[in-house]
Design a protein that fits this description.
Blueprint (H helix, E strand, L loop, with lengths): L7 H14 L4 E5 L13 E2 L6 H8 L3 H13 L2 H8 L6 E5 L5 H4 L3 H11 L6 E6 L6 H18 L3 E6 L9 H8 L3 H10 L6 H13 L6 E2 L5 H15 L17
Parallel strand pairs: 1-2, 1-3, 4-5, 5-6
Subunit structure: Binds to RNA polymerase II (RNAPII).
Function: Small GTPase required for proper nuclear import of RNA polymerase II and III (RNAPII and RNAPIII). May act at an RNAP assembly step prior to nuclear import.
Family: Belongs to the GPN-loop GTPase family.
Length: about 260
């Protein structure tokens, strides 16, 4: 999951390709009713139930309102999803979710979807994607950290944060990058305060202190051209899911990975 434009579909395709290369049975599950193109054909697709295009045309909704309607329609028809999932109970599922951040921070919709999947006895992990280019604009990075934290709190599921598109990032020293992987409170505060009115300085300091005190947000770098980077991300997801522990004896455990 992640804001629009963070390359979630590319992430899904990368992880599917990696799973196939290591011999893991994997399927793509699409929960984005506005999706148009995929590198891999979804095995389960919300568009077989409802599409954003149809909702906008028939109900005259805008894109945002239509998206919310589609997902609420899914929640009211979870028997459809449960039946679809029954065919893949022993496989690893990578779920491509809508990119609109409001669904993870402003509305309880995705939280309810997660709750439903857990009641079906699926073990799930959320992956929040933030473009690595955000570190070139500290105010954007600060906002990205806050959105990631908000999504983590809202969903309350095993969760990892990923800085995507590291292959497109310019030359940055390793020591400087590490300040973003585990966000440096001084970096966040100083940069945020430099672009904001003094009346917000105390608020910024309090927010950053919260992030630091509870060690709530850290990021893993993803370079899709580097197999070691992809393997590292997958190992963190597997660890969050206790995936290897579930292999013997084999149980119907799948993943929620956007």
């Amino acid at each position: 999951m992640g804001p629009a434009g963070t390359g979630k579909s590319t992430y899904c395709a990368t992880m599917i390709n990696h799973c196939q290369n290591i011999g893991r049975s994997v399927h793509l599950m699409n929960l984005d009713p506005a999706a148009e193109k995929f590198e891999y054909t979804p095995s389960i697709d919300i568009r077989d139930l409802i599409t954003l295009e149809d909702v906008m045309e028939e109900l005259q909704f805008g894109p945002n309102g239509g998206l919310i309607y589609c997902l609420e329609f899914l929640l009211n028809n979870m028997d459809w999803l449960e039946e679809e999932l029954g065919e893949y109970e022993d496989d690893y599922l990578i779920i491509d979710c809508p990119g609109q951040i409001e669904l993870y921070t402003h509305f309880p919709i995705m939280r309810r979807v997660c709750d439903c999947l857990q009641r079906m006895h699926f073990r799930i992990c959320g992956v929040y994607l933030l473009e690595s280019q955000f570190i070139e604009d500290n105010s954007k990075f600060f906002a990205g950290v806050m959105s990631a934290m908000s999504a983590m709190i809202s969903l309350e599921i095993p969760h990892i944060n990923v800085l995507s598109k590291m292959d497109l990032l310019g030359k940055v020293k390793k020591r400087e990058l590490e300040r973003y992987f585990d966000p440096d409170p001084l970096l966040l505060t100083d940069k945020a305060n430099s672009s904001m009115s003094p009346k917000f300085h105390d608020l910024n300091k309090a927010i950053v202190q919260l992030i630091e005190d509870y060690n709530m947000v850290s990021f893993l770098p993803l370079n899709i051209t580097d197999e070691d980077s992809i393997t590292m991300i997958m190992s963190h997801v597997d660890n969050a899911l206790q995936f290897e522990e579930d292999q013997e004896p084999k149980e119907p455990k799948d993943t929620f990975d956007e």
